Amino acid sequence: MIDVAPPLLAPLLTSLEAISLGAVWNWLIEPFQLSFMVRALWVSAFVGVVCAVLSCYITLKGWSLMGDAVSHAVVPGVVVAYALGLPFALGAFVFGFGATVVIGYVQSKTRLKEDAVIGVIFTGFFAFGLVLATKIPSNIDLFHILFGNVLGISEQDIIQTLIAGLTTLGIILLRRKDLLLFCFDPNHAKAIGLNTQLMYYTLLSVLALTIVTALQTAGIVLVVAMLVTPGATAYLLTDRFDHMLMLAIATSVLSCFLGTYFSYHLDAPTGGCIVVLMTLLFLAAMFFGSKYGIFAHAASQPKELS
Amino acid sequence: MTFASAQPKTHSMPHSQGSYGIAVDNISVTYRNARLALYNTNCYVEPGTITGLVGPNGGGKSTLFKAIMGFLSPSQGRVHIDNLSIAQAQKQQLIAYVPQADEVDWNFPVSVYDVVMMGRYGYMNIFRVPSRKDRQIVRDSLERVGMSEFRDRQIGELSGGQKKRAFLARAIAQQGKIILLDEPFTGVDVKTEKSMINLLLQLRDEGHTVLVSTHDLASISTFCDRVILLNQTILAAGTTAEAFTAESLAMTFGGLPISALPRRSSDQDQPMFTQPVKPEALPTKAQPTRGMDGGAWMHD
Q1: CATH number of the domain encompassing residue A146
Q2: Tens digits of per-residue pLDDT, A185-232?
Q3: Rg of chain B over CA atoms, in angstroms?
Q4: Does A190 touch chain B if contact means CB atoms closer than 8 Å?
Q5: Which residues in chain A have their CB less than 8 angstroms from residue B104's CB?
Q6: Which of B93, B114, B157 is closest, CB to CB, to A192?
Q7: ipTM of the prediction
Q8: What's the burial of B72, exposed, middle or buried (CB within 10 Å: 0-12/13-18/19+)?
Q9: CB–CB of A190 and B108 under 8 A?
Q10: Is residue B80 in some structural domain?
Q11: Domains: count for chain B
Q12: Which of A138, A266, B99, B141 is the most buried (most CB within 10 A)?
């Protein structure tokens, strides 16, 4: 065996390497040694899966604005639930779903277009929630409702998140083909005797449930990004729904996991970190997607002309 | 099967075994903005026939389709499928619908095969797991419209004619006894139109009732057994020979040039301005510029 390093320097080098590598390693795994971080990472990865699955349907149905509406409309529900000592998920679901029913009712009874109705109703719910939050004596932190607080999530809230998320996944898994048909061609669904009214409300309730699931992670303001961006990213990459679903889950879980991780080191809001990563992945898909990417499109232009 | 071997029936068929007619029983439809779309509309779409639904834009063709599909409820009267309500008929998979091209999101991530399989959902269990029979029927339906080689294409990657054939395959896979086609020949080349017409004639001969709404007046007399002329209400209905006349068309669309008239088997007892015209000589597309108040015809 031939030793290339001078004999005197060798031990020094190894110890230096050991120190720096060890420090980097410690820095890297530090979040994994803290129980609240491990918990937050698991919760956000789970939320990532639930949101990604629903986002595929929401993007295809064109319900992004509806997602934004429901997320804002849950605020009074959260406040009321805390005030009455009920689970936050229950209050949030009732108000979130209730807002969609109100939106549907107002739309059917007035001549307003859907986006105007949504704009009026959800801001009304949200404003009512803000007023309630300051007037009802409770120990809830409005900042946590608005921006999420997954690093400080309680056991109880984890259980509620899990129940809401698993219910969502269960409903979508069992009804996925009908929901997809409903998004694609509701007229055909009706023509073959399926109950499209039921599908409409099923999709709205899983939307509300998903928002309840993601509330603690992303917060009300950013939850809509988790409901739209993974599906939108995947939609730019594939023409097959099952691939779209897998790509959405992959980008969403990656963003949620890394976003939560980086938020520890950057000391930045977790929801913000997750959504920034999701947006970066979306931009990457938009520019570099092999089929619908802007660069792919530009490269194929001359070929089409010739 | 050649194009010439299948000709429209000139007389209304006796009630074919297993065929269903559409009874539109004195319906009126008013939209929310108080616009009256249809009033006192009565007609019966005979079982086992191809019936053309003809009328100007805004004349209520789409509204009548929606009423037959149960997408809207009339303010007066009702539509039924022989002895069945619309809902019952839909539960029994009796009504298949081929949508207009602009009703479909062509960027949706589904393949041709997926779309045709949607025709089978009504026969599947609640989780929509296709059986061997469902898969076989989907393959046969694709074969029948000549789309087998495109089964894995995303639907947006098809030509106009292929898109229509994909949705026609879905209607065939659904095995609905009544097939409604809304403007099926829009954006379709002549060759595809001919083969689609042949397929519709075959389906009729198998006992299907086919209702086609179309602007394409030229082809009506080549494949429609019967016609219904609609402008806010029924203005004429009957066999193509009886009802597809200069007078009724003039009444439906407003002023109409003689060159746009269909060929008549006999014009002995017809008004003077009815002249025989070969179908090939007719304008392929005609768009009314105005409604009943005497609008002029534009030829493409």
Answers
A1: 1.10.3470.10
A2: 999 999 999 999 999 999 999 999 999 999 888 899 899 999 999 999
A3: 19
A4: yes
A5: 185
A6: B93
A7: 0.85
A8: middle
A9: no
A10: no
A11: 1
A12: B141
